[in-house]
């Protein structure tokens, strides 16, 4: 058997080896037929809708148990479609009007609605187009009685190979799947998020090369590099097995030492924090021994509600997080809305380029009444712990001063109402190249700066972070991005304030040495990678790291940086 090497997008890290199993979508053959008894067709449709609801509710429950409420919530959109008059109601009306069979009408309405949604600019609606296709496929299988793909064909150790995977597919994976490989999808696709939550490697975006993989082929995956090897030589297979064993042993060792603070080999303290997206993530952060929270994305409070969250609702949430971390720092980021995060009740204007638009701090400063509710809630919560308030998408000094003025106003209002407030640190995210370039001036206004490499990368490299077509260009280790990191760290050091990083790059264990060499003192990441990053910090010699960082800053491309760090003894 010939060995094949295929390159895709590394969407969830990890090394694994297993046998390929194709997840083939079954598409029933649909024929257009005339019917006389339309009531009977509508009854058939209703029975399928009821069965679909039952199946989806079960999937929701399995997903909730395995991956948590947030991932399970994806299925709420599916259930809502099955209640939607614009979808199911439209099918019923059309069966009556045109007297055609339910299967044909279901296919027609699903196609029309999903195409309409996919054509909208709004990322949220685009994602709903995939959801409706998923629901439509389920209904068609039920209406035709065709059996769907049988998930029991997957065994522990299987590597799932598919054109595309949607949440209702991944929810059916049995325990012990070794990895997933798909033709479509990017790092931010649902499948990628699910893979990271399940802790299995994923390589997505393989395009047509995926057809070179056959059922039963032995596959080695590197979810970090985005590479797969099909039918490796016995030597390569043996080497991969050894590397997997070592990786496992290192992970266990790192977890055993995770509750010790991380110091470099020469004694510099590097703080390792967790990024959290909601209260549900607090326990995982504590379990992985986070030394604080480096980024609490408060968007969920707004996105999960159908109204602007009240001061009281917000206060309760912030208080709970602060209580959980005692005197450890908790960085709470103020509302980062706009861009790809839409709020239906906010009535945000349509924008040609939402990522370059009216988002985050820009929106908050333009809507002080909304912003002040959050600032008041934060100030009230500040007495419960060590609160650091962080402003997203800052681009100039005036924005910081305006936000600080509003904060002072809120503090005075609360004081005149007899409400006690505590000390807070004020900081900014550096995620726009302009902010990094004038970091020396911004640093004078704040207590800390945290680099958001997810946005900083997309703005520096002009590569949309969610677009699979430019995913090959989007890499935070590009020397241009690293140069902006260095500038920010230098500015922070001169002002004697903390320079941290909370973008995904902070949690890339291969880059720990370089990040320390660039001058970062705090790294914040998904909780799962904390033990490994702490372990890597312990191997770093700061002087040596500085030399390594200087060297990568001179390199020509992200690939060159990646190759260099992969061969470095501490990676
Ligand atoms: C970032 O941009 O790096 C960041 C941490 O913020 P978000 O991913 O929420 O935009
Ligand atoms: Mg950002």
UniProtKB/TrEMBL annotation:
SUPFAM superfamilies xref list: Enzyme I of the PEP:sugar phosphotransferase system HPr-binding (sub)domain, Phosphoenolpyruvate/pyruvate domain, Phosphohistidine domain
PEP-utilising enzyme C-terminal domain sequence ranges: 258-541
Chief place where the protein resides: cytoplasm
Enzyme Commission number(s): 2.7.3.9
Molecular-function GO terms, alphabetical: kinase activity; metal ion binding; phosphoenolpyruvate-protein phosphotransferase activity
Cofactor: Mg(2+)
Record's function text: General (non sugar-specific) component of the phosphoenolpyruvate-dependent sugar phosphotransferase system (sugar PTS). This major carbohydrate active-transport system catalyzes the phosphorylation of incoming sugar substrates concomitantly with their translocation across the cell membrane. Enzyme I transfers the phosphoryl group from phosphoenolpyruvate (PEP) to the phosphoryl carrier protein (HPr).
Annotated protein name in UniProt: Phosphoenolpyruvate-protein phosphotransferase
